[in-house]
Design brief:
Elements lengths: L21 H28 L10 H13 L3 H26 L5 H40 L13 H30 L2 H6 L2
Helix pairs in contact: 1-3, 1-5, 2-4, 3-4, 4-5
């Protein structure tokens, strides 16, 4: 038996890297993109809430923003803390997702933690937004009454308040969908094959 045949496997030249599932690349890219979207949403919301005074409502869109700013002021600190958490978790997800994509060692653990964190803060955001709806609706009615002439309804045959109510519900459902997508990504990341490919 030659000396070469008894060499420790760790002393041998590096073996070619194991192939990884194509679905892992797709999911990692998708979750990284969602993290960027969430970071952008959180950043824009923080900018609006932290403004000394929002823009004077002159249209449906500005009235919605003004109403949101007004509704949040009574619970401003808690809302800012939530959005900062979303921003940090989104950044964590972006970094961990990139580590998965470049095949860094032991990248899966960080990625799973980032996904779990994003699920948690986004689910909390859904609950918070739902709790905010009554105050937001009242603030919108007051904001719309400030405008002269009266803001026309963006949807023909539907009252302005009803359009707002539907828009606010869509916003909550969109946040819920984001939470569901993060949860789906976490479920994929927890699969044994995925854990093995990202170890």
């Amino acid at each position: 038996m030659t000396a070469a045949s008894v060499l420790d496997p760790t002393d041998s030249p590096d073996e070619p890297s194991r192939p990884r599932p194509f679905s892992l690349v797709v999911v990692a890219l998708a979750m990284t993109g969602l993290g960027l979207i969430e970071a952008n949403l959180a950043e824009n919301t923080l900018a609006l809430v932290r403004a000394a005074t929002p823009s004077t409502p002159i249209s449906f869109e500005t009235a919605v923003q003004y109403a949101f700013w007004s509704a949040v002021q009574t619970r401003r600190s808690g809302f800012i803390a939530m959005e900062v958490a979303r921003l940090l978790m989104a950044g964590f997800l972006f970094v961990s997702g990139m580590r998965v994509l470049v095949r860094a060692r032991a990248s899966g653990w960080m990625w799973r933690q980032a996904l779990a964190g994003n699920v948690a803060v986004t689910v909390f955001a859904v609950w918070y937004e739902r709790a905010l709806l009554p105050a937001w609706q009242s603030a919108f009615s007051r904001a719309a009454a400030m405008v002269t002439p009266v803001i026309p309804s963006p949807v023909k045959g539907v009252t302005l308040d009803e359009v707002f109510r539907r828009s606010a519900q869509v916003s909550v459902w969109a946040t819920g969908l984001l939470a569901l997508m993060f949860a789906s990504g976490l479920h994929y990341a927890m699969r044994p094959a995925t854990r093995d490919a990202t170890s």
